[in-house]
Amino acid sequence: MDGQQWWGDVPTWISSLAIVFAAGSFFLDRRRRAHEREREEKSQATGLSSWVVTDALTRPRVYGVIIANDSGSTFHSVEIVVTLHKQSQQPITLVTLPPGRLFVPLDGEGAGGRFSWGYAMLESEYPGSLRPYTVSDGYVVESMAFSDNLTQRWHTDRRAVLTRASDAASTA
C-alpha cells in the first residue's frame, strides 16, 4: 500500500480528469464560437467586390469600374482606389452603396493628369458591352474601404483579401 500512495485515490483522479476534459471542451467551444461570430460578421462584407472594365468597341474607349454589392444590404462610406493606364486615380467615393451592380465610368482628365469619375449607373443601364481587365497590372482595383450595416469598417487589398480595418491598420 505504501508504494501506491503517490497515486492517491481513484475518485480524485477521476474528478481531475473530468475537470481537465471539461476545461478543454470549454476552450474548444469558445474558439469555435469566436470563429462562427467572425464568419457571421464577415458575411455581409464578402458580398462586395469591384473590378476594372472597358468597352473596347467604343471610340474613344470607355473605361470604368463595376462595383458589385451582392450582399442584399447597403454599404456606407465606400472608397475604392483604382489604377488605370498604370496611374493611380482619384478614389471613387460613395456615401451609400445599395445592393446591385453599378458601373462608374471614367469621366475625363482632371488636375495632374488624373482622371475624375462620372456618376454611378446601374450596370444594366450602360448601352455597350463591358469587359473586365483580367491580365493587366495597369488596370486594377488597388483597395476598397467601406462600412457595413453593423458599422464595422472593412478593407480589401489588391488581391481582394478582406480584413477588418482595425486589423489592417495593425498589420501595416
Task: Give the SSE map.
Blueprint: H1 10-45, E1 48-55, E2 62-69, E3 75-84, E4 87-88, E5 92-97, E6 100-109, E7 115-117, E8 121-122, E9 131-132, E10 140-147, E11 153-156, E12 162-164, H2 165-171
Antiparallel strand pairs: 1-2, 1-9, 2-6, 3-4, 3-5, 3-10, 6-7, 6-8, 10-11, 11-12
Short synopsis of the structure:
The protein has 172 residues and is of the alpha+beta class. The chain is 25% helix and 38% strand. It has two domains: 43 residues; 126 residues, no CATH class.
Keywords:
6-stranded antiparallel beta sheet, 2 helices, single chain, 2 domains, 172 residues, alpha+beta, 25% helix
Structural commentary:
This protein is an alpha+beta fold and 172 residues long. The protein has two domains: 2-44; 46-171, no CATH class. 25% of the residues lie in helices and 38% in strands. The chain is built from two helices and twelve strands. Strands 1, 2, 6, 7, 8 and 9 form a six-stranded antiparallel beta sheet that branches. Strand 11 (153-156) and strand 12 (162-164) form a beta hairpin. The relative contact order is 0.16. The model is unreliable at 168-172 (pLDDT under 50).
